[in-house]
Amino acid sequence: MGREARVPKKARSLFSRIGKKRAVMKRDVGAELDVEITAPTTLEFQIAVAPQPGAEVTESLAFVLNGKEIPLADVREISGDHGNRIHTFDVKEGNLKVSYSATVVGQSEPAPLRDIDLSTYLRPSRYAEADKFFGFAATEFGDLADSSTLLEKVSSWVGTRLSYVPGSSDPIDGAADTLLAGAGVCRGYAHLVIALLRAVNVPARLVSVYAPGCHPMDFHAVGEAFVDGQWRVVDATCLAPRQSLLRIATGRDAADTACLDNHKGSINLNNMTVTATVDGDLPRDSLEELVSIR
Amino acid sequence: MGREARVPKKARSLFSRIGKKRAVMKRDVGAELDVEITAPTTLEFQIAVAPQPGAEVTESLAFVLNGKEIPLADVREISGDHGNRIHTFDVKEGNLKVSYSATVVGQSEPAPLRDIDLSTYLRPSRYAEADKFFGFAATEFGDLADSSTLLEKVSSWVGTRLSYVPGSSDPIDGAADTLLAGAGVCRGYAHLVIALLRAVNVPARLVSVYAPGCHPMDFHAVGEAFVDGQWRVVDATCLAPRQSLLRIATGRDAADTACLDNHKGSINLNNMTVTATVDGDLPRDSLEELVSIR
Amino acid sequence: MGREARVPKKARSLFSRIGKKRAVMKRDVGAELDVEITAPTTLEFQIAVAPQPGAEVTESLAFVLNGKEIPLADVREISGDHGNRIHTFDVKEGNLKVSYSATVVGQSEPAPLRDIDLSTYLRPSRYAEADKFFGFAATEFGDLADSSTLLEKVSSWVGTRLSYVPGSSDPIDGAADTLLAGAGVCRGYAHLVIALLRAVNVPARLVSVYAPGCHPMDFHAVGEAFVDGQWRVVDATCLAPRQSLLRIATGRDAADTACLDNHKGSINLNNMTVTATVDGDLPRDSLEELVSIR
Amino acid sequence: MGREARVPKKARSLFSRIGKKRAVMKRDVGAELDVEITAPTTLEFQIAVAPQPGAEVTESLAFVLNGKEIPLADVREISGDHGNRIHTFDVKEGNLKVSYSATVVGQSEPAPLRDIDLSTYLRPSRYAEADKFFGFAATEFGDLADSSTLLEKVSSWVGTRLSYVPGSSDPIDGAADTLLAGAGVCRGYAHLVIALLRAVNVPARLVSVYAPGCHPMDFHAVGEAFVDGQWRVVDATCLAPRQSLLRIATGRDAADTACLDNHKGSINLNNMTVTATVDGDLPRDSLEELVSIR
Question: How far apart are CA D239 and CA D241, in angstroms?
Answer without folding.
Answer: 7
